[in-house]
Design brief:
By secondary structure, this protein is an alpha/beta fold. It has 16 helices and 14 strands. The chain has 3 domains: 237 residues, Rossmann fold; 100 residues, no CATH class; 59 residues. The termini are far apart.
Length: 432
């Protein structure tokens, strides 16, 4: 279901050469904190487009400038240089009060720390309603209450939670409240600043599924800020990699993982853990060293090498990247040391097969394969259905879920067997 939005001061989205609508555009953005000798250049010459309806992820290590860019998009961080455009309208720098309100109305943010971003003195009802009050987005009190209750139920909470305070909720529930606060405004774009990094692994999939559901139902566009590439791959349409404030690579999600052409991107992918502890122990961690670049004469540029793949480098590096990409052979980002004693393999062929299997497992691991205790409990109560569910999970390579169902079902069958044995023994004793 698409949400109709009115843009009185914002124009229509410009269209690129491929016919895609550009909702947000950053052009040569510089962001500096401090003045004089104490000035810190947090973002340098950042340029990228976010297309309408997509999830564009910005990834990099802590302190690389991801959050700084996100806060600049919602007009919290001022720019030292460059421009930001939304629907073709410049929204950076000084703009009119009316345009500022329309930008706030259309671009909302979900913050990283759900505890720090919620007002501890306000009830959940007021927290979610604050934007409705500020922008008069309800007809009367009954309409406001209806909108808030619908939204709190949409994020998986209950209307009775509205009278409580943030400290009464878990981290996952507080993040749901933060999402509800943003979504009740019916925005067109959401800047999600590491919305799952503070959550337990079992809760992360629930929050991500919730965000994807809202994207489908409300035609949302996400600027998703994260450092966990294993999560980013499964939710992103395109990924931008940032290093020390500079965008070094942008490509489609699958393209980036198959062809990590910038050394920093290669290092990020190599750092993602492998599920197998033996292989993880023997994995070679690729460390990015900026000194490998010689930009003294041949100055670097940010250019497209084809396949909508952008790389930051000098002419020699760009030509090398083009050559690798045109070969069409995926770049091997994970390397395992050939240690027969640790890997229990006797030949190089077996080692190569184990390495290939590890990389395949890493690249295709299901997001929702959590092995939740709920599967154990349900399979214990209904062992026959547990066995069936386990076989289905196994077919789709959800091995943790399969093992949980198998464990619960076996325990259930044993319990039923013990109960039947006791019942038969009592029956025999009664007859005798």
């Amino acid at each position: 279901m698409s949400t109709e939005r009115k843009h009185t001061l914002l124009g229509e989205c410009p269209v690129d050469e491929n016919g895609k609508e550009i909702l947000l555009s950053l052009k040569n953005v510089d962001i500096t904190f401090g003045k004089g000798d104490n000035a810190v250049r947090a973002v340098q010459d950042a340029s990228f487009d976010v297309y309408k309806g997509e999830t564009f992820s910005l990834v990099g290590e802590s302190g690389s400038g991801k959050t700084t860019i996100g806060r600049a998009v919602i007009r919290v961080n001022p720019l030292a240089g460059g421009e930001i455009y939304y629907r073709g309208t410049k929204i950076s720098g000084k703009i009119s009060h009316a345009l500022d309100r329309e930008v706030i109305r259309n671009i909302q943010m979900v913050f990283q720390d759900p505890a720090a971003s919620l007002n501890e003195r306000a009830t959940v009802d007021y927290i979610i309603s604050e934007g409705l009050y500020n922008f008069h987005l309800f007809e009367n009190e009954a309409d406001r209450v209806k909108k808030v209750e619908n939204m709190i139920e949409a994020v998986g909470l209950l209307p009775e939670h509205l009278t409580r305070y943030p400290h009464e909720f878990s981290g996952g529930q507080r993040q749901r409240i933060g999402i509800a606060r943003a979504m009740v405004m019916e925005p067109e774009m959401v800047v999600a600043d590491e919305p799952i990094s503070a959550l337990d692994v079992s809760v992360r999939a629930q929050v991500l599924n919730l965000m994807k559901q809202f994207q489908r139902e409300k035609d949302l566009t996400y600027l998703f800020i994260a450092h966990d590439l294993s999560v980013v791959r499964f939710i992103s349409d395109r990924i931008g990699v940032i290093y020390k404030g500079r965008i070094v690579e942008i490509a489609d999600a699958e393209e980036l993982f198959n062809f990590p052409l910038h050394p920093y991107t290669h290092s990020l992918i190599s750092a993602i853990p492998i599920p197998d502890p033996k292989l993880e122990k023997n994995k070679v961690l690729y460390t990015y060293d900026p000194s490998i670049h010689d930009y003294s004469v041949d100055k670097p540029e940010f250019v497209c090498i084809g396949h909508d793949h952008w790389i930051y480098g000098n002419k020699a590096e760009i030509e090398k990247a083009k050559e690798i990409r045109e070969k069409g052979e995926p770049v091997k980002a994970i390397t395992i040391t050939k240690d027969p004693e640790k890997l229990n393999a006797k030949t190089d062929e077996e080692l190569d097969a184990a390495e290939a299997a590890a990389e395949a497992q890493f690249l295709s691991a299901p997001v929702h394969d959590t092995g939740s205790k709920l599967y154990v409990i349900l399979s214990f109560l209904l062992p026959v259905l547990g066995i069936i569910a386990g076989l289905i999970f196994k077919k789709f390579r959800h091995m943790r879920n399969y093992k949980a169902c198998r464990k619960g079902a076996i325990a259930g069958f044993i319990t039923i067997g013990v109960i039947l044995a006791i019942f038969l023994l009592m029956l025999v004793l009664a007859v005798i």
